[in-house]
Amino acid sequence: MRAFSLKTSLTLTFLSTLLCLSQSSAQQPEPEVEVGAEAEQTGNTSNRLLYIDLPVALAEGLDPVLPEPLPLADPQDDAEFLRRLDSIRQYSSAVDSIEQTGGAWDRALVEELSTMGSLQQQQGEHAEAIETLNRAVHVNRINAGLHSLEQIPAIETMIDSYIAIGDWGNADLYNNYLFFVQRKAFGADDPRIIPVLDRLANWHMQAFNIGYGESLGLRLSTAQILFKAAARMVSVHFGRADERFVDLKTNIARSAYLVARYPQYMAELDRPEARTTEDLLRDSLNEQGRMLPRGFRSGEVALLDIIDFHNEEFSSVYDLAEAITNLGDWYIIFARRRAAGQKYAQAYQLLLDQDNGEELIKQLFGQVVPIPTFRRPTNLEKATSHDLDRSGLRSDYADLSFDVTASGVVRNVRMLSEITDENTLQLDRLRREAGLSTFRPKLVEGRPVRSDDNQFRYRYWY
Predict the structure, then answer these.
(1) What is the pTM of this model?
(2) By C-alpha distance, which of 435, 304, 448 is closest to 365?
(3) In which domain, by residue range, is 403 found?
């Protein structure tokens, strides 16, 4: 009953805030169906291709073997398992003792329950950890107030357990509640809010990737607003030299890439309730003007800012050249070939002027590279039943060969691995996805050129 009361209280509190996305009744969106994929979509779902990892280039004369996926760790295999088990018993005994002397709401219970919940989580006992941490939060709220910052560590630990068991609804609820509490305590301009913005933005990106929620477009839009607010505050309070600046700008570019890749989700933002949610969030963070989530322009500005960072901080020539090349990649993705060629030539010349220029050029431009380099593994169907750890999925790999034009377009995709009755659906989809991808072309004397028979190994999950 304690856990139910706390959850109900948090729900009512959160529903009154600006970030309510109505996730309690969220439904899984219809998966995208590509041309020619009807047979796969209507076939055996147990063989449906769900994830594709970033490909690995095959070197001549070498046969790289991708490492086997790490099995889910069994806490009992941990040498510390028995020690933690004994500690949990001790903390449980301490909790009983405190309750006998001070009652069920004694403030001293908070630390004991929080530590015990963390230990239970390490043991893999996530349901028990959530129950224990829930009680710790409830006792803290009774003693320190509904919006006490003291409850934050326990809630953060509890979120990790909700994610571990795939309870996206509660992970979403508590992530947004963390933002509400800390925004209320710190205000919009306090630098302590920066990691809060970053955490919530990353959660929205993760929720988008697993397909959780009714409005995936709003997920991306919210993430972009939060990343931009965090980057602005880092720049204002700590300067652009702060190490977080580049990471936040990269995340802005990553969200912009997804905005451009999934325009069908952006149409959801035309709904009045979505516009209202965005406006309230921007106002609460003192972000000026209405900002539509942008693809090309947001990514371009973010990548230009990263180049400025490396110029201003006198980074290594290679780091600067790589940042310029990433902007060239961005132009290639959006079919701006002339601009891409200019950036590639600029980066090439920077490296050529170095004593080991030929080696650096080979490292950056010696082979085709899947772009953008900062993208994450592709979740093809936004399947809410599978998180990024791919637990419960099977994996295999296949080798492909294809040509890459001077403009980064993939042509003539050929399957090098054996196609069988068991893998034909997966490999057909993999071949289509490879054909739709974009690669950084090879450079010869500073100019992009076509390259044939590029061979890559892809791991896929189904």
Answers:
(1) 0.83
(2) 448
(3) 380-461
